[in-house]
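Batch queue: ligand-bound targets. Current item pairs a single chain with flavin-adenine dinucleotide. No template structures supplied; prediction is de novo from sequence plus SMILES. Inputs echoed for audit trail.
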Amino acid sequence: MYAMTYLKAKSVKEAADFLAAHPEAKLLSGGMTLIPTLKQRLARPSHVVDIGQIAELKGIEAKGGKLVIGAGTKHYEVASSKTVAKAIPALAELASVIGDPQVRNMGTMGGAVANNDPAADYPAAVLGLNATVVTTKRSIPADQYFKGLFATDLNDGEIIVRFEFPLPKAAAYSKFPHPASGYAMAGVFIADTGSGVRVAVTGAGPGVFRWKEAEAALGKAMKPEALEGLALDSGDFNEDIHATRAYRENLVRVMAKRAVEKFAKGKKASRK
Ligand SMILES: Cc1cc2nc3c(=O)[nH]c(=O)nc-3n(C[C@H](O)[C@H](O)[C@H](O)COP(=O)(O)OP(=O)(O)OC[C@H]3O[C@@H](n4cnc5c(N)ncnc54)[C@H](O)[C@@H]3O)c2cc1C
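Prediction returned. Tokens below.
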């Protein structure tokens, strides 16, 4: 595991330069995924480029009708931010149910979205809220960013710098966590963007996806009954020691209903 060179980047530019000079290098942000991967010999990078202390990757700001969150911002910072709680409370709630306190104090939004674990929580918010992933090279719309199992639109040497979330009218997230890790067995994020309803599902399939039938139904009536009997293509859903495909499909339906119930409560609360 340890036969590699450790490089600590002081700026995003320096990190990008390190990656350009060492094509076999890997970025290290919170280390919550990379370190276990190295320990299990699933990756053998020539260099590890530590971006964990770069100030320009950190921070949370609401500006110009958007919530902007630096890629190096830790889960607990999102969960406890008053700015996030005011702008998109569902995002703060989602961050608060990632893993355990240790993971939330080390893991970062950029690391989680770059890794794109099929059971991770943030991809559901990024896709559900129609966020933009801003990198050192370009701005990537969420609909283009996620490419399935641990796959994204990121190219070699590209670093996520920040996320830009348009402010929704309302949003809600509900997940059924794996009892040991906290990862989503199924998680559903619902957002009323102002120009339509978006429903993003994580944990069930090989990657986060939009449930278009639910978006159409909830766009007409935002109530749990609107989801009854809706088509849900579960042909490629995960089947493993934790759950069958049919069980995961049922979980998606139940989590979607719970998210709709939360959505209604959230709306009432914000009108008071
Ligand atoms: C016990 C445990 C429980 C967990 N439970 C959950 C859970 O319930 N829900 C959930 O969503 N996640 C969960 N996680 C994952 C956790 O959220 C991690 O923080 C996350 O997956 C990776 O973030 P990181 O900052 O630690 O990234 P790292 O481990 O440092 O990096 C992960 C990958 O992303 C790349 N990377 C990092 N930053 C960037 C960047 N800015 N630009 C481009 N590439 C980058 C790295 O090179 C690496 O390939 C859990 C992890 C553990 C260990």
